[in-house]
Design brief:
alpha+beta, elongated, 10-stranded antiparallel beta sheet, about 700 residues, 5-stranded antiparallel beta sheet, Heparinase II/III family protein
């Protein structure tokens, strides 16, 4: 921290700068600071002449700039101090009114020239080629927006109508990215990499155009202009732009300085407003980060200390709510385990680089990478639970992946890092993990079987009706897989993916899960154990509603066979539906729904067999159409296996086997004992197996 910032920081007391004695004649809110041996001047006979030389550091209240001098007051008398020998500092903290005061306009402008820049927090990091390419497009009026259609034509930014000239597109991410100033970020990064001031000049025009169309007073009526997360991200792009702009020769207009400070101040006011804040959500985390950035970048603002305290307190609460003590992010989506760690890790690096302070609870993120290891599937994707996309993950999955050898092993396909030690693991109350192997030559890394189950209801953030849903992967493909998030859009497909019918779980016929606020906390993974011959995971949920309880037990033989035991108890009898959505490209090849025994096969002869073993005369099985969205905005047709039971104490025992050897289970029998079931089966090649299912 340089001398100027140290002096400002030391003067802060309760968010307000300690005031120097006010002279009655003073009419600005700034002092001029001079070092020892500086000559003070006076006006005499209409000429500025030396008055005295100071021996110590002194401060005088500025009246106004006057040519090459500052006119100030000393003992009630006017004095003149050369600008080249002076430092302008706030005499008191800056309110919004003082920022806009005509008496302060030129002084704030001069003061901003002297303030240091900061290491940037870049929400979207670009390569040099990307930054230059996108910025050059912007200068031509052909803006690049990361979301399709990836373009916005802006022939003249000075006359652009932000409310009428933005096309209507399906994805909500388009407007989100536009208004969080993705283009300003491109321009700023391009300037940093090339020094071309044309990028900053165009950025200035964008800010003037946008702020005119989006007055802060109207923030409640401007959905995308003041989106809860977009507003926070825009703060970082504004700060990054301002830090470099104010140090260039472009910084000539005091009116633009006033606009920038006023805009940043008003963004802080909005971020601090209780009715704008997104509690118990990663959007609120971004809001707290942005408010912290403003408070610590502008200690001169009168509310900065209060904003910092508010941001710290809220962020502590957010972290406690959204990240478990063992490093599981609790927004129901493995993809957000990645996203939130990215956010916090880079924010922590940014804060350290700038000497900013953050709440102590941010250290809770340190366990996230290790837990993420056990979410990565053998094909190096994440299970598409909640709002997780199914694209391939690599060594850049988080910052510094190489520092976490188990995660590096998982995302590199075993070519880097160190083999993780566990094949069975409970990931907080949110997920269960069971895997066949990490390395088993000559079998391929991607060929291992992996079974996961999701549970947990912590908030509405990215919450689907998917409690106790499962993901079954093996033989280098998905066999039972969620529908996916589809993408952030207003299309009907996006609404479909939230429904319980889109998930691999059990629900009441014609009804969804109960996701009312009263049900928060009533879904969890109970236990995950390695029992030697098998691994067992148990989850329990009350979200099935109406006082009912759904308990799901997974018994995995550590190879290719899985038993799913669903027990549903309900105060009143009802019809319950169990669903398993199959992976892409699987078609019925043998068996029948009448026999409650079906086998599906893909083009390379990989099969999945599903047998219902606990059935009665009211049971039935059906094959129904479904859809799959592994990647955003794809909607592939596929099949789902649906089984229906009626009662107040309903049991499903579903035997599932994956295979590529043209064999199948011919016979399966269940023996019920006091505390468990014993399942024995015979494969078509004569092999037999036995699995114990705890009740």
């Amino acid at each position: 921290m340089n001398r100027l910032n140290k002096s400002i920081a030391s003067a802060l007391l309760g968010g307000t700068l300690i005031l120097a004695p006010l002279a009655a004649e003073a009419n600005s809110d700034f002092n001029v600071r001079v070092a020892p041996k500086t000559t003070i001047h006076q006006m005499k006979d209409k000429k500025v002449v030396p008055l005295q030389t100071v021996n110590t550091t002194r401060e005088y209240r500025i009246v106004r700039p006057s040519g090459w001098y500052y006119l100030a007051m000393s003992g009630g008398k006017p004095i003149y101090i050369k600008k080249s020998q002076a430092q302008v500092v706030p005499a008191r903290s800056l309110t919004k009114a003082r920022i806009s005061s005509p008496a302060n306009r030129l002084l704030i402008h001069d003061y901003m020239r002297q303030t240091p820049g900061h290491a940037p927090y870049e929400y979207d990091r670009l390569t040099t080629d990307q930054a230059r390419q996108f910025a050059d497009r912007a200068l031509r009026g052909d803006w690049y927006i990361p979301t399709a259609p990836n373009q916005l034509l802006v022939p003249n930014i000075d006359t652009f109508n932000w409310h009428k000239d933005v096309p209507a597109v399906d994805s909500t991410s388009y407007a989100f990215q536009l208004h969080y100033f993705t283009v300003l970020n491109q321009l700023t990064q391009a300037y940093n990499k090339t020094g071309n001031r044309a990028y900053l000049q165009y950025g200035e025009r964008i800010i003037k155009s946008w702020t005119k169309a989006h007055p802060a007073a109207n923030y409640k009526r401007l959905r995308w202009g003041y989106n809860d997360q977009g507003t926070a991200i825009r703060v970082f792009h504004l700060l990054n732009f301002w830090d470099v702009y104010k140090k260039t020769t472009l910084h000539k207009d005091p009116a633009f300085t006033e606009l920038m400070l006023k805009t940043i101040y008003e963004h802080a006011e909005i971020l601090a407003a209780p009715d704008f804040y997104k509690a118990r959500h990663n959007h609120g985390i971004f809001q707290d980060m942005a408010l912290t950035a403003i408070a610590q970048s502008f200690p001169e603002f009168d509310k900065s200390a209060a904003w910092q305290t508010l941001a710290n307190n809220r962020l502590q609460t957010q972290i406690a709510h959204s990240i478990s003590s063992d490093g599981i992010h609790l927004e129901h989506s493995p993809g957000y385990q990645v996203y939130v760690y990215h956010t916090f890790a880079r924010f922590l690096t940014w804060a350290e680089a700038n000497g900013f302070t953050l709440p102590s609870r941010i250290e809770d993120i340190k366990e996230i990478p290790e837990q993420l290891t056990y979410m990565v599937k053998p094909n190096r994707t994440l299970p598409i639970f909640g709002d997780t996309a199914g694209h391939l993950r690599a060594m850049n999955i988080i910052p510094g992946t190489a520092d976490y050898p188990h995660l590096a092993y998982a995302v590199s396909g075993g070519t880097e890092g160190v083999e993780p030690p566990l094949l069975t693991k409970q990931l907080g109350s949110q997920y269960s993990f069971m895997r066949e192997y990490w390395a088993n030559p000559p079998q391929a890394f991607s060929g291992a079987t992996q079974v996961m189950m999701t549970a947990g209801y912590h908030s509405s953030a990215h919450k689907h009706a998917d409690d106790l849903s499962i993901d079954l992967y093996g033989l280098a493909r998905d066999f039972i897989v969620e529908t996916g998030r589809y993408g952030y859009t207003n299309r009907p497909e996006r609404r479909e993916v939230f429904k319980v019918e889109a998930h691999n779980t059990v629900h009441r016929f014609g009804e969804g899960l109960d996701l009312s606020p009263d049900m928060v906390g009533k879904s969890r993974i109970v236990s995950v154990e390695d029992l030697g011959a098998t691994s067992v995971a148990i989850g329990e949920s009350e979200l099935i509603g109406k006082g009912g309880v759904h308990r799901r037990t997974l018994v995995y033989d550590k190879a290719k066979t899985l038993v799913v035991y669903d027990k549903i108890t309900s105060p009143e009898p009802d019809m319950f539906v169990q669903r398993f959505h199959l992976g892409d490209g699987l078609t019925l090849s043998r068996g029948s729904i009448e026999q409650n025994d079906v086998t599906f096969r893909d083009a390379t002869r990989r099969t999945i067999q599903l047998m219902q073993l606990e059935t009665d005369e009211d049971s039935y099985m059906a094959i129904r159409p479904s859809h799959l969205s592994v990647r955003d905005f794809e909607w592939k047709p596929r099949e789902q296996v649906v089984s229906v039971e009626y009662g107040d104490d309903v049991r499903y025992i579903t035997l599932i086997r994956i295979d590529r050897s043209n064999t199948y289970i011919e016979q399966a029998d269940i023996e019920e004992r006091e505390t468990d079931y014993v399942l024995s089966y015979t494969v078509s090649n004569g092999e037999t197996g036995e699995m114990t299912i705890p009740k």
